[in-house]
Amino acid sequence: MKPIAESELILNSDRSVYHLKLAEGEIADTIITVGDPERVKEVSKHFDTIEVKKQNREFVTHTGRIGKKRITVISTGIGPDNIDIVFTELDALVNVDLKTRLIQKEKKTLQFIRVGTSGALQADIAVDSFIATSHSLSLDNLLHFYQPNLSKNEKNIASEFSKQVLPDDSSIHPMAISASNKLLKLFTGAFPHQTSPKLRTGITVTCPGFYGPQGRVVRNKLAYPNLINNLSAFQMKKLQVTNFEMETSAIYGLSRLMGHEAISLSAIVANRVLKQFSKNGNKAVNNLIQLTLNKLVAI
Description:
The protein is an alpha/beta fold. It has two domains: 1-108, Nucleoside phosphorylase domain (Rossmann fold, 3-Layer(aba) Sandwich), CATH 3.40.50; 115-298, Nucleoside phosphorylase domain (Rossmann fold, 3-Layer(aba) Sandwich). It is 26% helix and 28% strand. Helix 2 (80-95) packs parallel to helix 6. The protein starts with 29 loop residues before the first strand and ends with a helix.
């Protein structure tokens, strides 16, 4: 086995990973990802202790404990390209010996929980409710640069989605990847000794942008003017497209490739079908953060 070249995995002078500026031992096995750097402290304020605080660019990391449970929360910024950076470097921290640059013989599995905001694509999904993504579906091209191992069912979902949603001459080639069964059961199952809002499950579509790729018209003409209606109408057996955002498919795809577990949890701040927007999106996100931490600490 050859060491990973310096140009391929860039390290800082203190042997921290290049973009995140984190060193070995500074992250937990359970990692909450948020998009907004300001949201990191909204998670870590619930920690009993904080042992690591790091920041570089839009990447803010806090690692601490709630009781005996060690948790890291990190901001990824927006979009699949940032997920590519964050997840690759987090994996390197636990599965590459940064001194020798050799891949570890025994691989460590991390648990990733995305806590973010999203727009609903079904009229019956209320603003301020929560969704746990059972399947991600990419409209971006990040995963085409890798070779994820896809199941027959995942391939069928992507194929049926292309038939129902995209025109025949579309240059978009979606991939469908499912969530970690273990984490999906954790967040949609019974909550011991407490009442908890039920999380709806469904397909989350990941878009490579916020405006045109999510069907918003400001000044530019859209290539897919019927995108919202087509997404909302998609049906495969009992599966529907429940929502869309900008990171989940990259999180699921890279986690699959590297042997990690992932779940994406979304607070619905907009309903694109009804054209509604949350009156207090921050409260909804904070409620989702509290639910997430309660679930993680209970296991």
